[in-house]
């Protein structure tokens, strides 16, 4: 069950990125990431930029010359975690005055100069679109100048920067296809911290996938705040597409076309994508999922609330009924598709009846997984400016608990539905509990563990019959195809 940071392995929060030794590396970088998958992916770009400057990553804080925290602002709790961590790092800095500490990511973007004024131990503040400037900023700080760059960009996609990958399992990787978000959901800080939505050149996406395939990767997740909104027309913000030339419009590549290109070019690679936004999910994408066996049958489709009136206050661009229509369409075109959601309990003005609508929506869909949160007011967002955060804390907590319990019931039902069936599983690593077992996922993103069989290795696709399940894991055994 995922009740915490979404898409995020809770175990990975604060993980330090470790890359292979580079020649000419003279300085040590400790780079820690918090928050969503996009941040973990961005850290790989940062490591790549700094590798070129002679920085080698380390997992030992004590030996670092430079410490960077890639931060998250999505909920207040995420920011508190980073503040606490900065407090701890302060102690190290006292012993090693030449050590430099920087904050990257959403919290850097949100707090800007305040970081230097309030948290005196921070030397460098860099927003998500300014990582190319890091080498200059590091020089500035060495020369005793303030080093802040929180400029957001309409074009930056880090398209040609080849991220370093060695933190993972060598089998699954993330490839960023869009940055920023234009949706302006009233509760959300992302449009302010990550700027306008823009798409990455499909050629550079295909190149990155090719490099991954050649390095032995077997699964790629295309990443964006709103992947279905992907639209390449030569660069620039999505919102300016209307001003594009006729030729640009005629040759534009949308998400369904991108999926088709990647899936066709790399038939041996499993493809996933995240995150889908209900308002932008087109039938074309579903048709590609039905057409290509290597596109996984799983959609993360956040809804946030089951009530049309709450959805309107959240500035989500669809009603409850329209969401049901989309669900019906998915079930029709991709019948075996798994679905997961993000849900917010206790948004501004949420009544008991509106909360009940959320529960009944969940009953309708019966999601495989859910990422569920209590509403956390974020400074500067439209909700913070215009709507009181007026649901009593105890009501928020109880409603969240009801949502979580219902999701647990549905997850258990879904998992039980997979028992007795044979699943194609990509072996991703050892089972955490027992290294005599492999760990992997099926196309629906359900986790399977099963005893190792001689001759199998990480990166193999194998057939596994699920014999039983716990709430989150299927337990099985390998079988012949
Ligand atoms: N489109 C993005 C959403 C990022 S935010 C994506 O890539 O998935 C992830 C989730 O955090 C949101 O879907 C929402 O459920 C939750 N969230 C965002 N702002 C929140 C807030 N102020 N309080 C509680 N949860 C929030
Ligand atoms: Fe946030 Fe809504 Fe975009 S949740 S990231 S503004 S789709």
Describe this structure in words.
With about 475 residues, the chain is of the alpha/beta class. Helices cover about 35% and strands about 20% of the residues. The protein folds into three domains: about 10-150, Methylthiotransferase, N-terminal domain (Rossmann fold, 3-Layer(aba) Sandwich), CATH 3.40.50; about 170-415, pyruvate-formate lyase- activating enzyme, CATH 3.80.30; about 420-480, Nucleic acid-binding proteins (OB fold (Dihydrolipoamide Acetyltransferase, E2P), Beta Barrel). The protein contains 15 helices and 22 strands. Strands 1, 2, 3, 4, 5, 6 and 7 form a seven-stranded mixed β-sheet that branches. The protein has a five-stranded mixed beta barrel with strand order 18-19-20-22-21. Helix 9 packs parallel to helix 10 (about 285-290) and helix 13 (about 350-365) packs parallel to helix 15 (about 395-420). The longest helix has 26 residues, at about 395-420. The protein is globular and about 65 Å long. The model is unreliable at about 1-10 (pLDDT under 50). S-adenosyl-L-homocysteine binds near residues 226, 275, 302, 304 and 378. S-adenosyl-L-homocysteine binds near residues 75 and 373. It is found in: Cytoplasm. This is tRNA-2-methylthio-N(6)-dimethylallyladenosine synthase. Its cofactor is [4Fe-4S] cluster.
